[in-house]
Amino acid sequence: SVAQLQTVVEAPDIQFGTNRNDTLYGLDGIDIIFGRGGEDIVAGNGSADFLSGDRGDDWLNGGANSDFLLGGAGNDQLIGGSGDDLLLGANGDDTLKGQAGNDDLWGGSGNDLLGGGSGRDTVHGGSGDDVLIDTDGGDRLTGGNGNDEFRLGNGRLPDTPKITIFPPPPDFTITDFKVGQDILNFNFWLSFDDLIIDDTEAGAMIGVEARIGLVLLEGVEAADLTQDSFRFADPKFADALQTTLAESLKDENSPGSIAAVITEDGYLWTGATGLAVAENNTPATAEDRFPIASITKPFTAVVTMQLAEEGILSLEDTMVQWLPKTVTSQIPNSEEITIRQLLSHTSGINSFIMSDGYLQSLIADPSLIFQDWTTEDLLAKYGYDKEADFAPGTGVTYNSANYLLLGLIIESTTDSILESQFHDLIIDPLGLDNTFIPGGEVPADYQPGYIDVDGDGVFDLNAGEADLDRFGGAGGFNLER
How many CB atoms lie within 10 A of CB 332? Predict the structure, then answer.
Protein backbone atom coordinates (compact mmCIF):
# COMPACT_ATOMS: atom_id res chain seq x y z
CA SER A 1 0.00 0.00 0.00
CA VAL A 2 1.03 3.59 -0.45
CA ALA A 3 1.30 5.70 2.66
CA GLN A 4 -0.44 9.01 2.32
CA LEU A 5 0.83 12.08 4.15
CA GLN A 6 -1.85 14.32 5.54
CA THR A 7 -1.00 17.91 6.30
CA VAL A 8 -3.06 19.48 9.00
CA VAL A 9 -3.25 23.26 8.72
CA GLU A 10 -4.37 25.05 11.83
CA ALA A 11 -7.11 27.55 11.07
CA PRO A 12 -6.29 30.95 12.57
CA ASP A 13 -8.55 32.82 14.93
CA ILE A 14 -9.53 36.11 13.26
CA GLN A 15 -10.77 39.12 15.21
CA PHE A 16 -11.76 42.63 14.11
CA GLY A 17 -12.00 45.66 16.32
CA THR A 18 -14.32 48.61 15.84
CA ASN A 19 -13.83 52.33 15.33
CA ARG A 20 -13.82 52.72 19.12
CA ASN A 21 -11.00 51.99 21.60
CA ASP A 22 -10.87 48.19 21.69
CA THR A 23 -9.01 45.64 23.82
CA LEU A 24 -8.39 42.44 21.87
CA TYR A 25 -6.57 39.36 23.17
CA GLY A 26 -5.40 36.37 21.19
CA LEU A 27 -6.78 32.90 21.78
CA ASP A 28 -4.94 29.59 22.12
CA GLY A 29 -3.98 29.15 18.46
CA ILE A 30 -2.66 31.35 15.67
CA ASP A 31 -4.30 34.78 15.81
CA ILE A 32 -5.00 37.40 13.16
CA ILE A 33 -6.26 40.57 14.82
CA PHE A 34 -7.12 43.94 13.26
CA GLY A 35 -7.66 46.83 15.65
CA ARG A 36 -9.22 49.11 13.01
CA GLY A 37 -10.13 52.62 14.25
CA GLY A 38 -9.59 53.98 17.74
CA GLU A 39 -6.77 53.61 20.24
CA ASP A 40 -6.57 49.85 20.59
CA ILE A 41 -4.82 47.35 22.86
CA VAL A 42 -4.00 44.21 20.90
CA ALA A 43 -2.14 41.26 22.43
CA GLY A 44 -1.24 37.90 20.94
CA ASN A 45 -0.81 34.66 22.81
CA GLY A 46 1.55 31.70 22.55
CA SER A 47 1.37 31.09 18.80
CA ALA A 48 2.77 32.91 15.77
CA ASP A 49 0.34 35.82 15.45
CA PHE A 50 -0.38 38.69 13.06
CA LEU A 51 -1.48 41.87 14.82
CA SER A 52 -2.44 45.10 13.07
CA GLY A 53 -3.30 48.31 14.86
CA ASP A 54 -4.65 50.06 11.75
CA ARG A 55 -5.80 53.62 12.54
CA GLY A 56 -5.28 55.36 15.87
CA ASP A 57 -2.53 55.30 18.49
CA ASP A 58 -2.36 51.59 19.24
CA TRP A 59 -0.48 49.26 21.63
CA LEU A 60 0.48 45.85 20.23
CA ASN A 61 2.23 42.99 22.04
CA GLY A 62 3.05 39.77 20.23
CA GLY A 63 3.76 37.70 23.34
CA ALA A 64 5.45 34.34 22.93
CA ASN A 65 6.51 32.86 19.55
CA SER A 66 7.48 34.61 16.30
CA ASP A 67 4.94 37.31 15.48
CA PHE A 68 4.26 39.94 12.80
CA LEU A 69 3.15 43.30 14.19
CA LEU A 70 1.99 46.18 11.98
CA GLY A 71 1.31 49.54 13.59
CA GLY A 72 -0.47 51.31 10.75
CA ALA A 73 -1.47 54.96 11.00
CA GLY A 74 -0.99 56.79 14.29
CA ASN A 75 1.70 56.85 16.95
CA ASP A 76 1.90 53.20 17.91
CA GLN A 77 3.77 51.06 20.44
CA LEU A 78 4.84 47.64 19.19
CA ILE A 79 6.36 44.99 21.49
CA GLY A 80 7.56 41.74 19.98
CA GLY A 81 7.87 39.66 23.14
CA SER A 82 9.76 36.38 22.88
CA GLY A 83 10.47 34.76 19.52
CA ASP A 84 11.93 36.09 16.28
CA ASP A 85 9.48 38.87 15.49
CA LEU A 86 8.87 41.28 12.61
CA LEU A 87 7.72 44.75 13.68
CA LEU A 88 6.62 47.43 11.20
CA GLY A 89 5.71 50.82 12.59
CA ALA A 90 4.47 52.27 9.26
CA ASN A 91 3.15 55.84 9.64
CA GLY A 92 3.46 58.04 12.71
CA ASP A 93 6.00 58.45 15.51
CA ASP A 94 6.21 54.87 16.71
CA THR A 95 7.99 52.98 19.50
CA LEU A 96 9.21 49.50 18.58
CA LYS A 97 10.69 47.06 21.11
CA GLY A 98 11.80 43.65 19.91
CA GLN A 99 12.54 42.22 23.38
CA ALA A 100 13.77 38.59 23.31
CA GLY A 101 14.73 36.76 20.11
CA ASN A 102 16.34 37.78 16.82
CA ASP A 103 13.96 40.47 15.65
CA ASP A 104 13.55 42.62 12.54
CA LEU A 105 12.33 46.16 13.24
CA TRP A 106 11.25 48.74 10.66
CA GLY A 107 10.19 52.18 11.84
CA GLY A 108 8.72 53.44 8.57
CA SER A 109 7.92 57.12 8.27
CA GLY A 110 7.90 59.43 11.27
CA ASN A 111 10.32 59.98 14.13
CA ASP A 112 10.58 56.55 15.69
CA LEU A 113 12.21 54.97 18.75
CA LEU A 114 13.48 51.45 18.06
CA GLY A 115 15.20 48.95 20.36
CA GLY A 116 15.87 45.36 19.43
CA GLY A 117 16.28 44.07 22.98
CA SER A 118 18.21 40.87 23.54
CA GLY A 119 19.27 38.70 20.61
CA ARG A 120 20.79 39.48 17.23
CA ASP A 121 18.42 42.06 15.80
CA THR A 122 18.18 44.03 12.57
CA VAL A 123 16.88 47.55 13.12
CA HIS A 124 15.85 50.00 10.38
CA GLY A 125 14.78 53.52 11.26
CA GLY A 126 13.28 54.43 7.88
CA SER A 127 12.53 58.06 7.11
CA GLY A 128 12.38 60.68 9.84
CA ASP A 129 14.65 61.53 12.76
CA ASP A 130 14.87 58.21 14.58
CA VAL A 131 16.50 56.90 17.75
CA LEU A 132 17.96 53.39 17.43
CA ILE A 133 19.01 51.58 20.61
CA ASP A 134 21.34 48.64 21.11
CA THR A 135 22.21 48.13 24.77
CA ASP A 136 23.95 44.76 24.67
CA GLY A 137 25.54 44.70 21.19
CA GLY A 138 25.13 42.28 18.33
CA ASP A 139 22.52 44.21 16.34
CA ARG A 140 22.81 45.76 12.88
CA LEU A 141 21.48 49.31 12.95
CA THR A 142 20.41 51.26 9.86
CA GLY A 143 19.12 54.76 10.46
CA GLY A 144 17.74 55.50 7.01
CA ASN A 145 16.84 59.03 5.95
CA GLY A 146 16.81 61.87 8.45
CA ASN A 147 18.99 62.91 11.38
CA ASP A 148 19.27 59.78 13.47
CA GLU A 149 20.65 59.03 16.92
CA PHE A 150 22.29 55.70 17.76
CA ARG A 151 22.26 54.91 21.49
CA LEU A 152 24.82 52.23 22.26
CA GLY A 153 25.68 50.44 25.49
CA ASN A 154 24.34 49.75 28.95
CA GLY A 155 26.73 51.71 31.14
CA ARG A 156 29.58 49.19 31.01
CA LEU A 157 31.96 48.06 28.29
CA PRO A 158 31.26 44.58 26.90
CA ASP A 159 33.41 41.87 28.44
CA THR A 160 32.82 38.90 26.14
CA PRO A 161 36.08 37.37 24.80
CA LYS A 162 37.25 38.56 21.36
CA ILE A 163 39.11 36.80 18.59
CA THR A 164 42.69 38.14 18.48
CA ILE A 165 42.62 39.41 14.90
CA PHE A 166 42.51 42.86 13.38
CA PRO A 167 40.04 44.20 12.83
CA PRO A 168 38.21 42.33 15.58
CA PRO A 169 34.51 41.58 15.18
CA PRO A 170 32.65 44.72 16.32
CA ASP A 171 30.35 44.72 19.31
CA PHE A 172 28.06 47.25 17.63
CA THR A 173 27.49 47.81 13.90
CA ILE A 174 25.94 50.82 12.15
CA THR A 175 25.48 50.42 8.41
CA ASP A 176 24.75 53.98 7.27
CA PHE A 177 26.14 56.53 9.73
CA LYS A 178 25.96 59.98 8.10
CA VAL A 179 28.75 62.27 9.33
CA GLY A 180 27.37 65.74 10.04
CA GLN A 181 23.81 64.44 10.44
CA ASP A 182 23.72 61.44 12.74
CA ILE A 183 24.84 61.21 16.37
CA LEU A 184 26.56 58.38 18.23
CA ASN A 185 25.33 58.41 21.82
CA PHE A 186 27.78 56.39 23.91
CA ASN A 187 26.45 54.98 27.18
CA PHE A 188 29.86 53.92 28.47
CA TRP A 189 30.83 56.94 30.64
CA LEU A 190 33.68 57.76 28.26
CA SER A 191 34.96 60.95 26.64
CA PHE A 192 36.09 61.68 23.10
CA ASP A 193 39.72 61.61 24.26
CA ASP A 194 39.27 57.97 25.31
CA LEU A 195 38.43 56.83 21.78
CA ILE A 196 40.75 55.00 19.38
CA ILE A 197 39.47 55.30 15.80
CA ASP A 198 41.05 53.25 12.99
CA ASP A 199 40.27 52.69 9.33
CA THR A 200 39.41 49.17 8.20
CA GLU A 201 38.21 47.79 4.88
CA ALA A 202 34.66 47.79 6.21
CA GLY A 203 34.75 51.31 7.66
CA ALA A 204 35.78 53.24 10.75
CA MET A 205 36.37 51.06 13.81
CA ILE A 206 35.94 52.79 17.17
CA GLY A 207 37.36 51.38 20.38
CA VAL A 208 39.04 52.25 23.64
CA GLU A 209 42.15 50.90 25.28
CA ALA A 210 40.09 48.45 27.33
CA ARG A 211 37.94 47.32 24.38
CA ILE A 212 39.21 47.32 20.80
CA GLY A 213 36.55 46.89 18.14
CA LEU A 214 33.69 48.47 20.02
CA VAL A 215 31.75 50.06 17.14
CA LEU A 216 31.98 49.66 13.37
CA LEU A 217 30.66 52.49 11.17
CA GLU A 218 30.40 50.86 7.76
CA GLY A 219 31.59 53.02 4.86
CA VAL A 220 32.88 55.83 7.10
CA GLU A 221 36.48 57.07 7.17
CA ALA A 222 38.13 57.67 10.54
CA ALA A 223 39.38 61.13 9.55
CA ASP A 224 35.82 62.35 8.99
CA LEU A 225 34.76 61.75 12.59
CA THR A 226 34.99 64.64 15.04
CA GLN A 227 33.76 65.22 18.55
CA ASP A 228 30.57 66.67 17.06
CA SER A 229 29.60 63.17 15.91
CA PHE A 230 29.43 61.90 19.49
CA ARG A 231 27.44 62.45 22.62
CA PHE A 232 28.66 61.28 26.02
CA ALA A 233 27.25 61.11 29.52
CA ASP A 234 28.59 63.78 31.87
CA PRO A 235 31.25 62.17 34.12
CA LYS A 236 30.60 64.87 36.75
CA PHE A 237 27.06 63.56 37.00
CA ALA A 238 28.41 60.06 37.63
CA ASP A 239 30.68 61.43 40.36
CA ALA A 240 27.74 63.20 41.98
CA LEU A 241 25.67 60.01 41.94
CA GLN A 242 28.49 58.05 43.57
CA THR A 243 28.86 60.69 46.28
CA THR A 244 25.11 60.66 46.93
CA LEU A 245 25.10 56.87 47.19
CA ALA A 246 27.95 56.91 49.69
CA GLU A 247 26.24 59.60 51.77
CA SER A 248 22.96 57.67 51.79
CA LEU A 249 24.62 54.71 53.45
CA LYS A 250 25.21 56.83 56.55
CA ASP A 251 21.45 57.10 57.05
CA GLU A 252 20.64 53.46 56.31
CA ASN A 253 21.17 50.47 58.55
CA SER A 254 22.92 48.48 55.86
CA PRO A 255 26.50 47.28 55.33
CA GLY A 256 26.48 48.24 51.66
CA SER A 257 24.40 49.51 48.78
CA ILE A 258 24.19 49.11 45.00
CA ALA A 259 22.17 51.45 42.78
CA ALA A 260 21.28 51.91 39.12
CA VAL A 261 20.04 55.17 37.60
CA ILE A 262 18.59 55.64 34.12
CA THR A 263 18.59 59.29 33.08
CA GLU A 264 15.91 60.97 31.02
CA ASP A 265 18.11 60.83 27.91
CA GLY A 266 18.83 57.12 28.28
CA TYR A 267 22.16 56.92 30.11
CA LEU A 268 22.56 54.10 32.60
CA TRP A 269 24.74 54.55 35.68
CA THR A 270 25.53 51.83 38.19
CA GLY A 271 27.47 52.24 41.41
CA ALA A 272 28.25 50.58 44.72
CA THR A 273 29.40 51.60 48.17
CA GLY A 274 30.11 49.89 51.47
CA LEU A 275 30.45 46.14 52.00
CA ALA A 276 28.95 43.17 50.21
CA VAL A 277 29.94 40.69 52.92
CA ALA A 278 30.04 42.17 56.41
CA GLU A 279 31.75 39.16 57.99
CA ASN A 280 34.99 39.55 56.02
CA ASN A 281 34.77 43.21 54.83
CA THR A 282 34.37 42.33 51.13
CA PRO A 283 33.67 45.62 49.27
CA ALA A 284 30.45 45.90 47.28
CA THR A 285 30.70 46.24 43.49
CA ALA A 286 28.08 47.18 40.92
CA GLU A 287 28.34 43.67 39.44
CA ASP A 288 27.38 41.91 42.68
CA ARG A 289 24.24 39.79 42.68
CA PHE A 290 22.16 39.48 45.82
CA PRO A 291 18.64 38.62 46.99
CA ILE A 292 16.14 41.49 46.87
CA ALA A 293 12.86 42.07 48.65
CA SER A 294 9.22 42.12 47.52
CA ILE A 295 10.00 40.74 44.08
CA THR A 296 6.44 39.58 43.38
CA LYS A 297 4.65 42.82 44.28
CA PRO A 298 5.10 44.18 40.71
CA PHE A 299 3.53 40.98 39.34
CA THR A 300 0.57 41.28 41.69
CA ALA A 301 0.08 44.94 40.76
CA VAL A 302 0.25 44.26 37.01
CA VAL A 303 -2.25 41.38 37.22
CA THR A 304 -4.61 43.58 39.23
CA MET A 305 -4.38 46.37 36.64
CA GLN A 306 -4.95 43.94 33.77
CA LEU A 307 -8.05 42.53 35.46
CA ALA A 308 -9.29 46.10 35.90
CA GLU A 309 -8.55 46.84 32.25
CA GLU A 310 -10.57 43.79 31.22
CA GLY A 311 -13.49 44.92 33.39
CA ILE A 312 -13.33 41.89 35.67
CA LEU A 313 -12.90 44.16 38.66
CA SER A 314 -12.77 47.90 39.32
CA LEU A 315 -10.09 49.79 41.20
CA GLU A 316 -12.90 51.42 43.16
CA ASP A 317 -14.30 48.07 44.35
CA THR A 318 -14.04 47.62 48.10
CA MET A 319 -12.61 44.64 49.95
CA VAL A 320 -16.05 43.42 51.02
CA GLN A 321 -17.08 42.99 47.38
CA TRP A 322 -14.48 40.29 46.75
CA LEU A 323 -13.31 38.81 50.05
CA PRO A 324 -15.28 36.56 52.42
CA LYS A 325 -16.64 37.88 55.67
CA THR A 326 -14.22 35.63 57.56
CA VAL A 327 -11.49 37.99 56.33
CA THR A 328 -13.17 41.40 56.09
CA SER A 329 -14.90 41.20 59.48
CA GLN A 330 -11.50 41.04 61.17
CA ILE A 331 -9.88 43.97 59.30
CA PRO A 332 -11.12 47.48 60.20
CA ASN A 333 -12.58 49.67 57.43
CA SER A 334 -12.92 46.75 54.97
CA GLU A 335 -16.19 48.21 53.70
CA GLU A 336 -14.34 51.43 52.74
CA ILE A 337 -10.92 50.23 51.58
CA THR A 338 -10.70 50.07 47.78
CA ILE A 339 -8.47 48.03 45.51
CA ARG A 340 -6.83 51.28 44.44
CA GLN A 341 -5.89 51.99 48.05
CA LEU A 342 -4.42 48.51 48.49
CA LEU A 343 -2.32 49.02 45.36
CA SER A 344 -1.04 52.42 46.49
CA HIS A 345 -0.45 51.53 50.17
CA THR A 346 -3.03 54.09 51.28
CA SER A 347 -5.49 51.64 52.88
CA GLY A 348 -4.40 52.32 56.47
CA ILE A 349 -4.46 48.60 57.29
CA ASN A 350 -2.27 47.77 60.26
CA SER A 351 1.33 47.15 59.20
CA PHE A 352 1.47 43.94 61.18
CA ILE A 353 4.61 42.68 59.39
CA MET A 354 6.51 45.50 61.11
CA SER A 355 4.55 45.27 64.34
CA ASP A 356 6.09 44.47 67.70
CA GLY A 357 4.31 41.12 67.91
CA TYR A 358 5.66 39.79 64.63
CA LEU A 359 9.14 41.24 65.12
CA GLN A 360 9.41 39.88 68.64
CA SER A 361 8.38 36.46 67.35
CA LEU A 362 11.17 36.64 64.78
CA ILE A 363 13.75 37.65 67.36
CA ALA A 364 12.69 34.78 69.59
CA ASP A 365 12.62 32.30 66.70
CA PRO A 366 14.36 33.56 63.49
CA SER A 367 13.39 30.36 61.68
CA LEU A 368 9.83 31.73 61.47
CA ILE A 369 10.90 33.85 58.53
CA PHE A 370 11.51 30.65 56.57
CA GLN A 371 8.22 29.02 57.53
CA ASP A 372 5.99 28.17 54.60
CA TRP A 373 3.10 30.46 55.54
CA THR A 374 -0.15 30.64 53.64
CA THR A 375 -1.72 34.07 53.31
CA GLU A 376 -4.65 33.03 55.49
CA ASP A 377 -2.38 31.63 58.22
CA LEU A 378 -0.22 34.75 58.32
CA LEU A 379 -3.24 37.06 58.51
CA ALA A 380 -4.91 34.94 61.16
CA LYS A 381 -1.84 34.81 63.40
CA TYR A 382 -0.64 38.41 63.12
CA GLY A 383 -3.02 40.55 61.05
CA TYR A 384 -6.58 40.21 62.28
CA ASP A 385 -8.30 42.52 64.76
CA LYS A 386 -5.50 45.08 64.72
CA GLU A 387 -6.27 48.80 64.97
CA ALA A 388 -5.87 50.64 61.66
CA ASP A 389 -2.78 52.81 61.21
CA PHE A 390 -4.93 55.59 59.69
CA ALA A 391 -8.27 56.11 57.94
CA PRO A 392 -8.37 54.85 54.32
CA GLY A 393 -6.95 57.38 51.87
CA THR A 394 -5.54 59.74 54.50
CA GLY A 395 -1.93 58.53 54.57
CA VAL A 396 0.69 56.34 52.92
CA THR A 397 2.60 53.47 54.54
CA TYR A 398 4.46 50.77 52.64
CA ASN A 399 2.69 47.67 53.89
CA SER A 400 2.91 44.12 52.58
CA ALA A 401 -0.51 43.31 54.05
CA ASN A 402 -2.04 45.30 51.18
CA TYR A 403 -0.56 42.90 48.66
CA LEU A 404 -1.45 39.81 50.66
CA LEU A 405 -5.07 40.94 50.35
CA LEU A 406 -4.71 41.81 46.66
CA GLY A 407 -3.54 38.25 46.05
CA LEU A 408 -6.69 36.93 47.71
CA ILE A 409 -8.83 39.32 45.65
CA ILE A 410 -7.20 38.13 42.41
CA GLU A 411 -7.90 34.53 43.35
CA SER A 412 -11.50 35.41 44.20
CA THR A 413 -12.18 37.30 40.96
CA THR A 414 -10.58 34.70 38.68
CA ASP A 415 -11.48 31.54 40.62
CA SER A 416 -7.87 30.41 40.27
CA ILE A 417 -4.63 30.51 42.21
CA LEU A 418 -2.45 33.61 42.06
CA GLU A 419 0.49 31.79 40.47
CA SER A 420 -1.61 30.77 37.46
CA GLN A 421 -2.55 34.41 36.84
CA PHE A 422 1.13 35.38 36.95
CA HIS A 423 1.76 32.81 34.22
CA ASP A 424 -1.33 33.52 32.10
CA LEU A 425 -1.06 37.32 32.11
CA ILE A 426 2.67 38.02 32.44
CA ILE A 427 5.18 35.17 32.38
CA ASP A 428 3.86 33.17 29.41
CA PRO A 429 2.91 36.10 27.11
CA LEU A 430 6.31 37.74 27.65
CA GLY A 431 8.24 34.49 27.37
CA LEU A 432 9.89 34.93 30.76
CA ASP A 433 11.34 31.43 30.75
CA ASN A 434 14.24 32.43 33.00
CA THR A 435 12.15 34.23 35.61
CA PHE A 436 11.75 32.06 38.69
CA ILE A 437 12.68 31.72 42.35
CA PRO A 438 15.21 28.89 42.58
CA GLY A 439 14.70 26.11 45.06
CA GLY A 440 17.42 25.27 47.53
CA GLU A 441 19.82 27.69 49.15
CA VAL A 442 20.97 30.90 47.51
CA PRO A 443 23.70 30.09 44.92
CA ALA A 444 27.28 30.63 46.05
CA ASP A 445 27.92 33.47 43.57
CA TYR A 446 25.25 35.63 45.24
CA GLN A 447 26.20 37.98 48.03
CA PRO A 448 24.28 37.55 51.30
CA GLY A 449 21.37 39.77 52.23
CA TYR A 450 21.07 41.04 55.79
CA ILE A 451 18.01 41.80 57.90
CA ASP A 452 17.96 43.98 61.00
CA VAL A 453 14.74 42.70 62.51
CA ASP A 454 14.35 45.14 65.42
CA GLY A 455 16.22 48.20 64.09
CA ASP A 456 19.00 48.13 66.69
CA GLY A 457 21.83 48.16 64.17
CA VAL A 458 22.58 44.44 64.58
CA PHE A 459 21.90 42.14 61.63
CA ASP A 460 19.75 39.39 63.11
CA LEU A 461 19.35 37.27 59.97
CA ASN A 462 21.51 36.44 56.97
CA ALA A 463 19.18 35.90 54.00
CA GLY A 464 21.94 34.07 52.16
CA GLU A 465 21.26 31.07 54.36
CA ALA A 466 17.62 30.95 53.26
CA ASP A 467 15.85 28.79 50.77
CA LEU A 468 14.53 31.57 48.49
CA ASP A 469 11.54 29.55 47.30
CA ARG A 470 10.31 29.29 50.90
CA PHE A 471 11.60 32.74 51.81
CA GLY A 472 9.21 34.23 49.25
CA GLY A 473 6.21 33.00 51.16
CA ALA A 474 7.52 33.48 54.65
CA GLY A 475 6.51 37.06 55.27
CA GLY A 476 10.04 38.42 55.35
CA PHE A 477 10.40 39.54 51.76
CA ASN A 478 7.70 38.39 49.34
CA LEU A 479 4.34 38.08 51.03
CA GLU A 480 1.84 37.87 48.20
CA ARG A 481 1.75 34.15 47.48
Answer: 19
Cα–Cα distance measured from residue 90 to residue 108, given in angstroms and rounded to the nearest whole number: 4
Are 72 and 89 within 8 A, CB to CB? no
Q: What is the pLDDT along the chain (481 residues), one digit of tens a residue?
A: 334 434 445 678 889 989 999 888 888 788 899 999 899 999 887 788 999 999 999 999 998 889 999 999 999 999 998 889 999 999 999 999 998 889 999 999 999 999 998 889 999 999 999 999 998 899 999 999 999 999 998 888 887 877 777 778 899 999 999 999 999 999 888 889 999 999 999 999 999 998 989 999 999 999 999 999 999 988 888 899 999 999 988 776 788 889 988 887 778 888 999 998 888 899 999 888 877 777 889 999 999 999 998 888 999 999 999 999 999 999 999 999 999 999 999 999 988 766 556 666 766 776 666 677 788 888 887 778 888 999 999 999 888 889 999 999 999 999 999 988 888 888 877 667 667 666 656 666 778 777 666 666 676 556 555 444 433 333 333 333 2
Could you tell me which of 396, 415, 426 has the C-alpha nearest to residue 300? Answer: 426
Q: Could you give the CA distance from residue 410 to residue 273 in angstroms, rounded to a whole number?
A: 39
Residue 432, class by beta-carbon neighbours within 10 Å (0-12 exposed, 13-18 middle, 19+ buried)?
Answer: middle
> What is d(CA 101, CA 202) in angstroms, rounded to the nearest whole number?
27
Going along the chain from its start, the domains and CATH numbers come out as: 19-146 (no CATH), 148-232 (no CATH), 235-283 (no CATH), 297-471 (3.40.710.10)
If residue 359 lies in a helix (H) or strand (E), which one and from where to where?
helix 356-364
Whether the upstream peptide bond of residue 167 has omega within 30° of 0, thus cis, is yes
Give the span between the Cα atoms of 319 and 418, in whole angstroms.
17
Euclidean distance between CA atoms 447 and 458, whole angstroms: 18
Q: Is 322 within 8 Å of 413 (Cβ atoms)? A: yes
